[in-house]
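Phosphate ABC transporter substrate-binding protein, PhoT family (TC 3.A.1.7.1): structure tokens wanted.
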Amino acid sequence: MRNFFATLTVLCAIMISGAAVHAADLDAFTGQSGTLKIAGGTAHIPVMKDAAQAIMEMNSEIRITIAGGGSGVGIKQAGEGLIDIGNSGREATSQELETYGLTMIRWAIDGVSVVVNPKNSVQALSSVQLRDIFAGRLTNWQEVGGEDRPINLYTRDEASGTRNVFWTKAIGKEAIDTKANVVVSNGAMKTAVANDPYAIGYVSVGHIDETVAAVTLDGVTPSIATVKSGDYKVARGLFSLTKGEPQGLAKLFIDYLLSPSGQAIVAAKGFIPVK
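Answer:
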């Protein structure tokens, strides 16, 4: 019994210590005030919202606004000084960095998964089949072992970082059929595929839930584990960018994303922490 209480005391001390460390991650916001504007990549939004909520609950003098728009929007608006932090699911090009004088910080790693409706019997494809589907050369699910039904393509606009990674790493920069339906975000893609039994699209691995089915590609099923191990190759970093070096609330926010608390949010939202 004495050993039991001794063990319990140690465990409680560890838990209290851990909680104190995580609470301390918000200490930098004490005494701060002002508005922080964030926009860009939509995959980032769940992490951004939770981080912003924690900060604003701790200090009501801080207001943080979060918008989507895609990676291209995040890079451009940060560079033009319209927002304080721009989010991107792709690395900014050397030209973008130089033109806008941007600083880029990676705080998570993410995979991009092909998804279909859960009712679809086709939940595994080869890279060749995937390229042919998105190029419009395969147009019926029967051609890849499914029902005799047309394949309904869904893609993202060219400003999307998710699209850029999918286009580059999943289909080898094959031209995507111009008849594909274009949706504006990871959330919109997931909703579209969930509501269309014959759809195929792609989302951030962190957005996968029971409403869509992740497609095994070349024998590897996309998941946090397979992205982390490197077995699943369709992966990317999640970045935040500022014009020049981060300053003020922007710096504090990015520091928080890289803190133990911030990285815990990253993991809880289905991404891979960088620390």
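DSSP finds ten helices and twelve strands in the chain. Residues 1-21 have pLDDT under 50 and may be disordered.

Cheers.
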